[in-house]
Each structure stands twice: as structure tokens, then as C-alpha cells.
């Protein structure tokens, strides 16, 4: 991206939509797959610690599966970055692959009696986490401040520490606030769908959002977009 201080509006919309998806699929995975995150790896590291300590209700293997798949996706993203230039094309490819992975996860959920245990559970976890890991690798290269699409701790710290209350001006306040609102909204809608429609419909909607975002991105974000 040529100017990290003023990212193109279409890119901001794209990253906001992907942040919604992160909240969405984390709601699906935590509520529908048994206390595991497929987008928030900080949460998984904590869950692994809880499980290792013997706390009830947490699966060490499920969290390790999510973490491993996420890292594998990130590695794949790094390899793809060597082949796809400019970075705009890398993110587009990452979104297409994530949409396919999420759709595949929805298919598994829709064809199996249950996805809360056994190989279907781990397959869905791996597909979702791998897709997000690949996407995160691409998003990181965009260099848009406070819009990582999955992490809010640093964003919230920036919002508070650079706020007027703290004596700053925070030129990225709108981006940070957008990320927080989108993550919350995605988690809320995702939770409602899981509770009232089930995992399959929820994952189908998530796949649709990513696919629609990829189409929007391909049309609205210029090919000339480069990383800082």
C-alpha cells in the first residue's frame, strides 16, 4: 500500500468485512465445535494452557489442531507471497481460498450427523483456522494500522493510549473503532445463527460473506495497490 496513513476506502471496507467474518467463525467454533477458536489464536494459546492444567470443558487436541492449521495457513500465505505480486493479488487469492475452505467446512457440517466430536470436528476446525491463517498472512502485508482482522488487544491499546484523554490525537481512531465494532457485530450475529439455525447455516453465511468481499475487492481495489 502506497500510503499506510490513508488506506483506500475500498480496502478499509474489505478488511472490516473480514473482521466481521473473524468474529463470526469464532462464535461458530466456540459455541458449535466445543470451546475452540478458529480465528483468535491468542485465545487458543490460553485454552491450551487451561486444558493442560486439567480444567474441565477444554480440549487440548482441538485447540492444538486450530493453532497448527492456522500456522500452516500462514506459512502457505508466506509462500504465495513469493509468487503473487502486487500484494493486492495476494489478498484476493487468500480470500478466494478462505471462501472455499469455509464452504468446505459448511459442507462437512451439513453432511454429518454432528460436528461437535470426532473427525468432522477436527476437519471443520482445520479448514476454518487454515483459511484464516492464510488470510492473516496476506492482510499483514497490507500494513493497514489497527486492522489486522483478528486481533483487538493491540487495537484497543492504541485507541486508549493515543486518545485525547491520554493527550494524543490517534490518527487511526476510526480504523481501530471500526475493527472493534465489526468484531463485536460478527460475534453477535454468528452466535445468534449458531443458537437458532445451527453450524451449517452459520458457516454457509460466513463463506458467502468472504466470497462477496472477494468480488467487491477485485472490482474496487486498484491493481496498483502495493504494500508500504
Commentary on this structure:
There is one protein chain. The protein is an all-alpha fold. The protein has one domain (18-220): Up-down Bundle (Growth Hormone, Chain: A), CATH 1.20.1250. The protein is built from eight helices and no strands. α2 packs antiparallel against α3, α3 (60-81) runs parallel beside α5 (118-142) and α4 (87-111) packs antiparallel against α8 (199-220). The longest helix has 25 residues, at 87-111. It is globular and about 50 Å long.
Structural class: mainly alpha
List the uncertain runs.
none
Number of strands: 0
Question: How many separate helices?
Answer: 8
How would you summarize this macromolecular structure in one to three sentences?
It contains 8 helices and no strands. The chain is an all-alpha fold and 228 residues long.
Keywords:
71% helix; Growth Hormone, Chain: A; globular; 228 residues
Amino acid at each position: 500500500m502506497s500510503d499506510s496513513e490513508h488506506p483506500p476506502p475500498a480496502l478499509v471496507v474489505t478488511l472490516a468485512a473480514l473482521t466481521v467474518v473473524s468474529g463470526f467463525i469464532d462464535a461458530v467454533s466456540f459455541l458449535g465445535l466445543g470451546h475452540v477458536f478458529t480465528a483468535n489464536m491468542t485465545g487458543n494459546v490460553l485454552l491450551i494452557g487451561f486444558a493442560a492444567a486439567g480444567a474441565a470443558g477444554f480440549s487440548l487436541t482441538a485447540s492444538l489442531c486450530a493453532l497448527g492449521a492456522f500456522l500452516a495457513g500462514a506459512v502457505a500465505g508466506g509462500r504465495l507471497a513469493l509468487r503473487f505480486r502486487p500484494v493486492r493479488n495476494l489478498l484476493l487469492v487468500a480470500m478466494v481460498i478462505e471462501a472455499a475452505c469455509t464452504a468446505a467446512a459448511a459442507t462437512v457440517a451439513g453432511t454429518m450427523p454432528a460436528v461437535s466430536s470426532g473427525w468432522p470436528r477436527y476437519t471443520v476446525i482445520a479448514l476454518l483456522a487454515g483459511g484464516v491463517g492464510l488470510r492473516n498472512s496476506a492482510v499483514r502485508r497490507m500494513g493497514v494500522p489497527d486492522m489486522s482482522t483478528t486481533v483487538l488487544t493491540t487495537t484497543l491499546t492504541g485507541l486508549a493510549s493515543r486518545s485525547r484523554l491520554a493527550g494524543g490525537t490517534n490518527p487511526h481512531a476510526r480504523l481501530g473503532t471500526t475493527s472493534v465494532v465489526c468484531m463485536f457485530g460478527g460475534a453477535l450475529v454468528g452466535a445468534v445463527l449458531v443458537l437458532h439455525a445451527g453450524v451449517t447455516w452459520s458457516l454457509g453465511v460466513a463463506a458467502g460473506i468472504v466470497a462477496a468481499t472477494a468480488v467487491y475487492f477485485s472490482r474496487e481495489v486498484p491493481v496498483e495497490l502495493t504494500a508500504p
